[in-house]
Every structure is written in structure tokens, then in C-alpha cells.
Amino acid sequence: MRQYAEKIRQWAKDRKIIPNSTLEAQNLKLAEEFGELADSFRKYITTKEDEKETREEYLKIIKDSVGDIFVVATILAGLLDKNIEELENLQNEYYKNEENLKYSFMWLQSDIGDVAKSIIRDKKDKLIDSVGNVVNDLEAFCRWQNLDFKECISKSWNEIKYRKGILNENGIFVKEEDLNKLEDLV
């Protein structure tokens, strides 16, 4: 996890997402990615076992969503001048009991809500704890569903690592081709 977190953090700095993004903007992105996870997980668990191709497609989206949530959590931590891999996992003891893994998805939903509440209330310490819990919940969810957490992160990293452009100081992402056009005008 550490190697990907470092790469993601550097990627976000190179694109000026860290420091030009806001906690509010990343919270929206976190909600969007969780929505994709929730939708695909619901479809996955309600699709019949004999519909293997359909289930595999939903499983692919689940893996992508897990990795994407990790990317956003890493950026949130970076905006707080923290490294995601160094945040405290407050629920480690809870998830040592394998029976509790089945609640990891609901805890993930709750902890993402806590991220939003902490931003609204300007509670930095609580926000840091909540972001750490999100990662812990993701890991537990992967264990529960027999997914390789590092593989999910790797997949997301491999999708974003070549994306170029920057987030300007106004919070607008400018794609690489648009940056080149701007340079030609100057």
C-alpha cells in the first residue's frame, strides 16, 4: 500500500491537486466513488450465481471503485499534510473479529459521512481519523469479499498515472492538451 500511496501523492502534487483542491471538492469525489461502489456491489450480490459474465463485470467495477476511493482518501490526507499509510486505523481491533467484516461496507458508508461532517464542522483531527477509518473499512471490505486490496489500488494507479494536466488555483482542472494550447497563445 505504501508504494502506491507515495506514487498517488506525488501524482496529485505534480498535477497541483495537492494543494489546489479543496476538502469539499475531494469529499464530493469520495461520495461519487462510493456511489459507484454501492451501485455495483448491490448489483453484484443480487445477480444470480449462474450469470458469471454479469457478476464478473460488476466485480470489475467494485475493484475499480475500491481503488478510486483509496486514491481520493490519499489526496484528502495529502491536503491535510498527512500520509495515508501513516494514519491510525482506529477499527483494527474491531475487524480482527472476522464476523465483523460483514459490516465493513456499512462502516465505510458511515465513515465517509464522518468525513463530510468533519469538513463541515472544521474538525481536522476527526477528519484525519475518519479518512484513516475509510482506508481501514476498504481493507476489511476486500477481506470480506476475498479481493486483493493492493490489486484494487494498483489497478486505479495504472489508470491515472499517465493522466496529465493540472488543477489551477481556481480549482479548475486543465487538461494537458488545453495547457499546450494556452502555452501556444503566450
Textual characterization of the structure:
The chain is an all-alpha fold and 186 residues long. It has one domain. It contains 9 helices and 2 strands. The protein has a two-stranded antiparallel ribbon. A hairpin with a 5-residue loop joins strand 1 and strand 2. Helix 3 packs antiparallel against helix 4. The mean pLDDT is 92.
**Main sheet record:** 2 strands, antiparallel
The structure class reads mainly alpha
Low-confidence segments, given as residue ranges, are: none
Rg (CA only): 17 Å
- Beta percentage is under 5%
Count of the domains: 1
Described by the principal axes of the CA atoms, the overall outline is globular
Q: Helix proportion of residues, in percent?
A: over 70%
The termini sit apart by: 41 Å
**Tally the helices: what do you get?**
9
Widest sheet: strand ordering: 1-2
Salient structural properties:
single chain, 2 strands, 186 residues, two-stranded antiparallel ribbon, mainly alpha, 9 helices
In short:
By secondary structure, the protein is an all-alpha fold. Helices cover 73% and strands 2% of the residues. A hairpin with a 5-residue loop joins β1 and β2 (173-174).
